[in-house]
Amino acid sequence: MAKGTTMDQIVCATKKHFEVSFYTSGQETVVTENDRVADNDYCVLVRKNIEPDEDLKNLSVLQLARREGFKGITLLERLLLELLYFHISSGEHLDIFNRTLCSGSRNADGGAPEVLWNSHDRRVYILSHKPEFPSENACSREIVSCTA
Fold first, then answer.
1. Which residues pair with 143 in a beta bridge?
2. I want to staple 131 with a disulfide (CB 3.0 to 4.6 A). Which of 56, 58, 111, 140 is the partner?
3. In angstroms, how far is CA 41 from the centroid of its own chain?
4. Phi-psi sector, 96: left (phi>0), alpha (psi -120 to 50), beta
5. How far apart are alpha carbons 105 and 72 in whole angstroms?
6. pLDDT band at 108, cuts 50/70/90?
7. If DSSP states are collapsed to H, E and C, what string results for 93-143?
8. Which pTM was predicted?
């Protein structure tokens, strides 16, 4: 993540290739808190999966927050990952069958955004996930290495 990278920059770059739909009218209102921000350059590594981490299925945002040492992907990191994967895979997408729970980001209600690709209307959706509810289809992506 380059220092100063913003959600608007990533969404603008993404929209050159496919649409992105937020669950609110403006992306600036989606997330109120992030575990990491682009105040400085940093790098995060996640597992090399198209789908989110299967071992994190059926865990709520609150359960993930209580896991010692656990770091989940932020919304900004997940959208950048989508864009990078799209380019290196010649137009493929992440989260075809499940949704990435961006547990490194928080909404105003304490929940987290979740991201999925919808192949029917060729659009990335960013939805809201309540903090206390686990989901079989929304799994986080664990940060396995981080320089932040």
1. 46
2. 111
3. 18
4. alpha
5. 8
6. confident
7. CCCCCCEEECCCEECCCCCEEEEEEECCCCEEEEEEECCCCCCCCEEECEE
8. 0.92
